[in-house]
Here is the input.
Amino acid sequence: MAQHYYQPEIETASREKILEIQNEKIVKQVRHVYDNVPYYRKLMEEKGVTPDDIKSVDDIKKLPFLTKADLRDAYPYGLLGTDLKKCVRIQSTSGTTGKRVVAFYTQEDIDIWEECCARAIVAAGGTNEDVCQVCYGYGLFTGGPGLNGGSHKVGCLTLPMSSGNTERQIQFMMDLGSTILCCTPSYAAYIGESLADAGYKPEDNKLKAGIFGAEPWTEEMRRSIEKSLGIKAYDIYGLTETSGPGVSFECSEQTGMHINEDHFYAEIIDPDTGEVLPEGSKGELVFTSLDKEAFPLLRYRTRDICVLTRKKCSCGRTHVKMSKPMGRSDDMLIIRGVNVFPSQIETVLLNEGYTPNYQILVDRVNNSDTIDINVELTPEQFSDKVSETQAKEKALESAMRTMLGIGPKVHLVPPKSVVRSEGKAVRVIDKRKLHD
Amino acid sequence: MSIKQLSVFVENKPGKLLEIVKNLAESEINIRAMSIADTKDFGILRLIVSDTQKAKEILSDDCVVTVTPVIAAEMSDKAGSLSSILEDFGYENINIEYMYAFTASTELGAYVVFRVDDNDAAERVLKSKGISVLDSMSI
Ligand SMILES: [Zn+2]
Here is the structure.
């Protein structure tokens, strides 16, 4: 496919050129933070680092880390980098893992964020002739506003649907001929199911691409969504702490997400020691915002475990690529001492021919952890014989045991019985917290 | 001549069965025969109803439903008639997955529903014994 870029000079710039931009920006940015964010200045002083020590991105490793705990401590204004007068917007996280994160934006910050999203849309084949249906949540959540802004910048006809009301989503999709769909992968899968339920075949819609993010998903899930909607599905990554979606995005190669390196400097560290690991190592992803004014986080630990690669990409983009996060310490469950990621469970389900609709229930009985997985049954998998249905549960249990290293109990449940909230499936219910 | 049975996957939770029966009643579908096999987690409800297609559509909204061909054989009131059928099925290597009895709506008497691995073979056996089977018309 012919390659198009939103900002070709930057997106295909030489490694030297990118480094030059980064080096220039980091010196300014560290000075900006030191002068304007007392919270971070104190961390720098504790570590004995001054802005004069930072001459290039190679010196970033000297800077202290920021973690989610810092964001909590500094809530709400402690990490603000500009006068509130210059700020024009806040966005916020759902607060599922503790206190909400509130991020601030100047107009300049928003422009850059939207440009990053525009790069993602163009990489997915978007042009000003496209109809872009955005069904990420709008409001405090960054998904809707980010892709909405990017879609405007590309010049797509933008459908600001927000999440939910699937019947209306489908009606607009069919009536207005949406060509690009932006939402969470679980909602995309649900739209696919609902289209089929309404009697539509994958070729009945005009969609060509989907930009899906904000929750973990697997290659298997990508294939199942691509099949059910008849599209190419692209991953997009971002966090509210670093602006929102668009920190990195997938290109036609679909082998990782290009990080917008002119705005974000990425490192992979050993999550235990904090030591920076060489390219190709698996570790925790750390981001430094190179030019954010209002919420300029330096060395923010994302908790996402992934790998960076500078292997030449067939799309022509030169920016470093990150793998899909392989797990997230926030999502990671420790069950009987074993690390379990929901994405592993999803992989097993898709391999065995089930839908990625499941729910994990973790509990503690007699001081021992229990894990139960409710899996939605499909008509194809249903047998009218009890023994066969039980055998299917047993087969899933054994496949799960192989993948996870611990044996969960699997229960088949009727379709659509796994709770979905605003299009985001509630994957894990950990009841152990009630006992602690 | 097989008849169509609905097999419904139901969660083993209070009220689930009632919900299904109510849904069918509201659409004026008569349940001719019913049997349930259950485990701790789930049950499989087997139904023979007056309008299989309509019932399937109604139940498919929130259940997994499949249609299974089964054979309903008329049982005479003589001792040993069932065991003689089972014996003959055994000779012919016909496996019975499950079976249940019901009384048809007419004055015809009692029927046994067989879910076997080979419907044609089972029908041949029954025919050779002079046992009549129900067709979907007479339900
Ligand atoms: Zn690429």
User: Anything to note?
Assistant: The mean pLDDT of chain A is 91. Chain A touches chain B through 17 residues (CB under 8 Å). The longest helix of chain A spans residues 15-36. The two ends of chain A are 55 Å apart (CA to CA).
